[in-house]
Design a protein that fits this description.
With about 90 residues, the protein is mainly α. It has a domain of about 60 residues. Helix content is about 65%, strand content about 0%. α1 packs antiparallel against α2. The two termini are about 45 Å apart.
Length: about 90
């Protein structure tokens, strides 16, 4: 049983934050030197990728839900009652 659905966009955003933390942790320990401006391409690239992946997953899930829907038949749900009067 799944506790929640898999959201790859959030995973990518989290990995981007971990990458930035790792870059600056290595700089703080003296393992390497990280320029201050490196944060911008890594952050914007990671968040942009996360947004793109989230959008793609949304479209795929929406399309698969539409194909599994029982409302995809052309017959109306009801031909009597208040819905038919409108």
């Amino acid at each position: 049983m799944l506790l929640h659905e898999f959201r790859p966009g959030r995973m990518i955003a989290g990995l981007t934050a971990l990458a930035l933390a790792g870059l600056y942790a290595g700089d703080a320990t003296g393992a390497w030197t990280t320029p201050w401006y490196v944060v911008f391409p890594v952050l914007f690239g990671g968040l942009g990728t996360a947004g793109l992946v989230t959008w793609i997953v949304y479209r795929v899930r929406r399309r698969s839900a539409r194909s599994r829907s029982s409302d995809s038949t052309d017959a109306p749900a009801s031909t009597s009652g208040s819905q038919a009067m409108r």
